[in-house]
Amino acid sequence: MTYQPPTALPRDLLDDVAVQRALADHDFGAAFRLARDRAGISYSRIAAECDIKPERVGTLARGQGRITTFDKIVMIADALRIPGRMVGLAPRPWETDGPPAHPYDAEIGTISVRRRTVLQAATSTGLAAALPALHRPREPRRITLNYVQHLRERTARLRRLDEILGGGDTYRVYLGEYQHTKRILRTGSFTDDSRRHLQSLLAEQAQQAGWAAFDGGRRTEAASLYEESKAAAHEAGDTDLLGNGFAFLAYQTADRRKAVEIAAASCATITAATPAAVQALLHERMAWACAVAGQADRTERALDAARAALNGQQDAEPQPDWAAWVDRIELHIMSGRCWTELRRPLRAVPVLTKALDAYSDHNARDKALYLSWLADAYLTAGEVEEAAAVTDRALDLAAGVASVRPQQRLAPVLDQLRQHQDVNAVRDVLQKADAA
């Protein structure tokens, strides 16, 4: 007889529209609440079967925080006997028959991209099993522009994973894509233009893998991949990706003076033909480097240049997918971060607050990061209770995200808060941080 865990959801509950929507959105807190209210499955039993702290289950059920790591989602699916298709996974081993397509299933690249925790982080084989829609097209004997375009579209779909998952989950997937393209360049046969376009794609993939490495705490691997991306972009004659390679290096360079120099080199690649989003991205990274270096005037000039680029963007102007995320909300976020670094909270707090109101909790890593700057700005302004409340929210969002950066950013904020332990709100958030 097949083992059924005590937390297995009844069939009629899995057929319930509210449960299906919660699972499709990866809102496991809502699923836990529905399991308790409609099936009598206690939070303590869910906690035990899913290896989650009981208080965390209750917090999730109240709508605070998200489950975002692949391993934990797999554990929940198995404990609650949720068919893999309902949460974006391949069929689980305990499923006897392949399930039919589900109305809430969606491929990466659609509006329901928040279900992108479908990736098995360890290997690209896991990715292929979880996402049949992302199988690589068969490699032709002679690499054509059409084939390169298929690979580029695949890269764009995979990039969406970064909005939800941390680099600890995505690094090997992105690295596998980069290594696959590198092998084709070494062994393939090409048309006149296909090698150059594939070389450009290699630069793009190296930057994505480098970003995931950086986000997952692999700074040495990230720097190496960024350097390789610059070389590939130079060989392809792709000045936009060359500029972005410089910008990535500037972003993670510890030497503040050198970071400004590298960021300036990235902006020097801008020409009249550079797409608006790329211009804005490079100017944003320049602003950040200058802010960290304490150069307020240069920071403001760079932010103004980024704003001008976005304001001048034409509706029909094509933008590369790797820069398409740069918009006015992101510019507001970067502006607030810069003013926080420059210790100007009166400028930082309003712009960060407004921008974060438009940010979904599904983007848990990024929102936790940006909230850390808002908390920092509140501390600079002497608003300790507000800083504690924002930090509390950031901790909920950062829990379980496979990225080192939220915790790195929150650590100095928590250190500052420890100076105010006589404040009730501060004591509460410090207790939560210490228990995590």
Describe the structure.
With 436 residues, the chain is an all-alpha fold. Helices cover 63% and strands 1% of the residues. It is built from 21 helices and two strands. A two-stranded parallel ribbon has the order 1-2. The radius of gyration is 23 Å and the shape is flat. Mean pLDDT is 87; it is low at 97-133.
Quickly describe the structure.
This protein has helices at 11-14, 17-24, 28-39, 43-50, 54-61, 70-79, 124-130, 145-159, 167-187, 194-215, 219-236, 239-252, 256-267, 276-292, 296-311, 328-341, 345-357, 364-380, 384-398, 405-417, 424-435; strands at residues 142-143, 189-190. Helices cover 63% and strands 1% of the residues. It has a two-stranded parallel ribbon with strand order 1-2.
- Ends distance: 38 Å
Q: Residue ranges: pLDDT <50 for 5 or more in a row?
A: 97-133
Largest sheet: 2 strands, parallel
Helix content: 55-70%
**Structural class designation:** mainly alpha
- Strand order within the widest sheet? 1-2
Shape descriptor: flat
| Extended strand count | 2
Summed over residues and divided by their number, the pLDDT gives a mean of 87
Radius of gyration: 23 Å
- Number of helical stretches of at least 4 residues: 21
Give the topology.
Blueprint: H1 11-14, H2 17-24, H3 28-39, H4 43-50, H5 54-61, H6 70-79, H7 124-130, E1 142-143, H8 145-159, H9 167-187, E2 189-190, H10 194-215, H11 219-236, H12 239-252, H13 256-267, H14 276-292, H15 296-311, H16 328-341, H17 345-357, H18 364-380, H19 384-398, H20 405-417, H21 424-435
Parallel strand pairs: 1-2
Helix pairs in contact: 2-3, 3-5, 4-5, 8-10, 9-10, 10-11, 10-12, 11-12, 12-13, 12-14, 13-14, 14-15, 14-16, 15-16, 16-17, 16-18, 17-18, 18-19, 18-20, 19-20, 19-21
